Fold ABC transporter, substrate-binding protein, aliphatic sulfonates family.
Amino acid sequence: MKIRTIVTWFTLFFVSLTIAVSCTPATDVSTSESPSTTAVQMGFSAWPGWFPWQIAEEEQLFAANDVKVDLKWFDGYLDSINALAAGQLDANTQTLNDTISSVAAGSDQVIVLVNDNSTGNDKIIVREEINDIKDLQGKTVAVEAGTVDHFLLLLGLEKAGLSPDDVEIKPLETGAASAAFVAGQVDAVGVFAPFTTKALERPGSKELFSSKDFPGAIPDHLVVSRQMLEERPEAVQALVNTWFDTLDFMNENSDKSLQILAKRAGVTVDEYKDYDAGTTIFSIEDNLAAFEPGDDMTSLPYAAQEISTFLVENGLIEQAPDLDKLLDDRFVKAYAEKQKT
């Protein structure tokens, strides 16, 4: 199972296939307008903050919001990134990092919803003798190159005054990286849940740091193509409405929801419960606050600028993209207004 990738050379290839951006002005959002009968092609993949979309499908919450959705599961998150960039999807679940990387490579994508923040489910796990980030110097770290956990590793190294050259990166797919760490072949590993559970099976292993130590650095989103946004804003609104209806369903039907989430994740209900604290699901209030300008990483406009700069400085993208049209909060605002009536 591949995971949440922030940049890859393959992405650059697929982005080149993207259809040229429409110059049509954005259509005003109307919550009363009925979406087209054409199905929205939407991708999602393995991450606790995105599994709730499975509930939306199984409980027919898309249909309840008058939108037809062809929800496509991707075992490989990278495949979903490429599919959106190539115009094969209208919407996809992606991190802020990935979306910035795709936009930098030429794809016109828009973030319309915050699903969650990673608050501990992305981890750097180390062997027994490593007790400080500076102890990583000269050590071998297994991580899927270009993934969010690679990004997390770089954040930790920078915080400790180290550079990427101070460690030896062993590039492995995340499942393989976890297995290599458990087998004692590397000193540390960057993984996310559920691979964190596997990695911690190594005797003496422990978490060195996690996404919890970098609040707001790894937000996860619903991202749509510019074409989808401009041609079918009513369908985008329906997707956003469905997300919040799904959260309501989960609150009212916790046992049934956990069964669906655990099954989609391929773990037991008890194992899934262990991941809860590591992913903070965003409510409508959280969304409204996140889209506001601010001076720390809890603000999406601020976080986008900081992450863009970080990606350039670390050679993960060639140049910073124009972020002026990356975020569109019209849909969460429209949902919030509807709840007041």
User: Anything to note?
Assistant: The longest helix spans residues 233-252.
